[in-house]
Amino acid sequence: MRGLRTAAVVMLAIDAVVCLIASIIDVERAALIQRIIDDEPVEIEEIKASDALYAASGLLELAVYFVTAVMFLIWLYRARINAELLSPWPHRRSRPWVIWGWIVPIISLWFPKQIVDDIWASSQPGVLARSRDLASAPRSGLIWAWWLAWVFSLWIGQVSARLFRKADELPELKQAAQMDIFLNFATIVAAILAIAVVLSITRHQENHRLTAMSPWQPHPPM
Fold first, then answer.
1. Distance between CA atoms of 168 and 148, rounded to whole angstroms?
2. Angle in degrees, 0-180, between the axes of helices 44-86 and 111-123, rounded to the nearest 10
3. d(CA 105, CA 125)
4. What per-residue confidence (pLDDT) applies to 164?
5. Whole-angstrom Cα distance, residue 176 to residue 180?
6. HEC per residue, 103-147
7. In angstroms, rounded to a whole number, what is the distance separating the alpha carbons of residues 31 and 34?
8. What is the number of alpha carbons within 13 Å of residue 8 lying toward its C-beta?
9. What's the half-sphere exposure (Cβ side, CA atoms, 13 Å) at 57?
10. What pTM does this model have?
11. DSSP one-letter code for 219
12. Tens digits of residue pLDDT in 207-219
């Protein structure tokens, strides 16, 4: 789990950094558009450079987001397998939903959280002893915060995409760039909370592993 944890955390951190850089580009683009609206002198080369930088940042965001999603899902699938070994009860969703739950429309709004909830409850020490099944197990405030941030970023992303598609005039292009800033901020918050979720679940699963190994062999160095 530690190798997958590191890979997922590194990609989530890179995703947050790329979003921060994209936000800076969005701020500069919005400022440039405002200068044009105010009839200030703007060189055509500056406009072309802004367009190229804006497009490049969008492609970079998309590429990093895809790699991050893949690494997170690989970590999540491994964590789910471990959680099944730790839980005396069946998880509420079968293994294929660990992947498909993020893709299928409507279902993606609650299946992934249920899956992570069950993994967290199975991994946390003492949680299952206070529950009659995984559905009634206590919920994590951290997972709630991460999930709400994630859903909010999805909503902001849809709004931003609609604004960009309909943007024909300069004020609309400026509004689309500003909405991108909000989207990037929501994504950064969701990525930071996702890092905390990955670290928390991995730490508890590793503690279970070390406890199972003791005292038969010495603990490996952390």
1. 32
2. 50
3. 34
4. 77
5. 6
6. CCCCHHHCHHHHHHHHHHHHHCCCCHHHCCCHHHCCCCHHHHHHH
7. 5
8. 28
9. 23
10. 0.86
11. P
12. 877 666 655 555 4
Model confidence at 194: pLDDT above 90: yes
Task: For tokens 């038969």, name the residue.
Answer: 216
Give the integer Cα–Cα distance in Å for 128 and 189.
Answer: 29
- Assign residue 39 a region (left: φ > 0; alpha: ψ between -120 and 50; beta: otherwise): left
Write out the two tokens for 154: 């999805």
Which tokens is 112 given?
Answer: 């992934």
Lowest-pLDDT range of 71-75, 142-146, 178-182? 178-182
Supply the pLDDT for residue 214. 59
Q: Find the length of the chain.
A: 222
Cis peptide before 215 (omega within 30 of 0): yes
Residue with tokens 């005039």: 169
User: For residues 153 and 183, what is the distance between their CA atoms, to the nearest angstrom?
Assistant: 6
Task: Report the chain's terminal Cα–Cα distance, integer Å.
Answer: 12
User: How far is Cα 68 from Cα 55, in angstroms, rounded to an integer?
Assistant: 20
- 221 Cα distance to chain centroid: 30
